[in-house]
């Protein structure tokens, strides 16, 4: 039904499987557990809930009136449970990053007589800056934060290895792309 990658819809379904929730509660839990510096917007919360409702994956369990607008409490349906179970049990497709933006920048720099080494150096500095930030965050975070930071750090380390390898092969790449 939805993309098999990290899906806000599937995340909402999983959270609703725990218990029925209001939209603002879904946003709060999502931001706390998965937002990690990138909170979800309320508009996206309610647009996602609307699609889930339309597709029969959630129902409105109740509507509460209060001082403000009516608040709908959403509950997952059997179809929603099946959908999230399918998503959880499907392995993620590894993404090989065969054509990265960084590679494109290096080749374009070579083709336009700009400093590809400068691009690699600048990117290396940015990766190292982010690695220091994540390492500091990891030291003060809970286990979930530590695992998220480790995942990002391992990817950054792989990128750094690629940067070093590309730097070492820059002359050969330059002769191939400019011939």
How would you characterize the overall build of this protein?
This protein is mostly helical and 179 residues long. It has two domains: 8-89, Orthogonal Bundle (Arc Repressor Mutant, subunit A); 101-177. 66% of the residues lie in helices and 8% in strands. It has eight helices and three strands, in the order αβααββααααα. It has helices spanning 8-18, 23-35, 42-54, 78-89, 101-111, 116-140, 143-168, 170-177, and strands spanning 21-22, 58-64, 71-76. A three-stranded antiparallel beta sheet has the order 1-3-2. β2 and β3 (71-76) form a beta hairpin. The longest helix has 26 residues, at 143-168. The termini are far apart.
Distance between the termini: 47 Å
Reading off the top of the CATH hierarchy, the class of the largest domain is best stated as Mainly Alpha
Low-confidence stretches: 1-5
CATH topology grouping of the largest domain: Arc Repressor Mutant, subunit A
Taking Cα atoms only, what radius of gyration do you get, to the nearest Å? 22 Å
Mean pLDDT across the residues is 89
Question: Structural class, judged by helices and strands?
Answer: mainly alpha
What is the helix content?
55-70%
CATH homologous superfamily of the largest domain, by name?
Answer: Winged helix-like DNA-binding domain superfamily/Winged helix DNA-binding domain
Q: Roughly what fraction of the amino acids lie in strands?
A: 5-15%
